[in-house]
Give the backbone structure.
Amino acid sequence: MAYETIIVEVEDHVALVTLNRPDALNALNDQLLKELSTALRECQKNDKVRCIVLTGSDKAFAAGADIKMMSEKSFVDVFSEDLFGPEPDMIQSVRKPIIAAVGGYALGGGCELAMMCDFIIAADTAKFGQPEINLGVMAGLGGSQRLTRFIGKSKAMDMNLTGRFMDAEEAERSGLVSRVVPAKKLKDEALAAATKIAEKSQIAVMAVKESVNRSYEVPLREGLLFERRVFHSLFATEDQKEGMSAFMEKREAQFRDK
Ligand code: CO8
């Protein structure tokens, strides 16, 4: 499918999805979110894709939801059309891992989109923020919920109430991002991480994603039981036999996703 607001490239089992509205610093509008959710659905169906990297430009991962698109809307408009309701649900339902590679601004909906991914690799130029308060509104895609779970109440309140930006170093220290890399290496580092994931058993990879995400939904006791049962179930796979045999035979495992 031809897209206008994103670019999708598939190579070596990794899909690189690049947000591409440079004139608006990749601000999220209806078209971009629809194209993104369609592309991710295609990646989910495509057997050649084993991991996904979502990125933006050097200047901006995404500077938020499109303010120009929203400015004239009323409550009735946004409530009736359920503005930005369905697409995030679609992104959440992708079972293959999605790495956000964030350089420059990740603000408002941009920060929230990055948090919908499975983990964030940040360039040293990255700036995260929930500045919706400056527009007389508030976060609407996870900035008051996911961010609070990721970095804790105090910092989430600070960011959402003052609208201040957090640089990459603080974001790593606070647990928002998994690692910080030089801006020039951002794409390569994210693709290398994705390639490494693509080499694993995809059954185990999906099990990991489901299990870690579960930890945000259920109490610890339930989560631990879920984890243990999923761990047990992986013993029904050929990949478990192959992985453990390969270790004992001191060779690389050849996973077949079975
Ligand atoms: N929406 C639309 N256009 C934007 C946005 C945006 N969020 N951000 C930047 N742009 C546009 C600018 O208008 C400008 O376009 P033009 O040249 O036509 O005037 C172009 O991108 C370049 O931007 P700047 O000239 O402002 O670039 P600077 O380098 O001076 O500043 C900033 C960069 C700091 C990123 C600045 O652009 C900025 O503050 N942007 C807005 C950030 C923001 O407030 N984001 C939050 C938006 S609201 C939101 O995300 C809510 C999400 C939840 C929705 C949930 C619904 C259920």
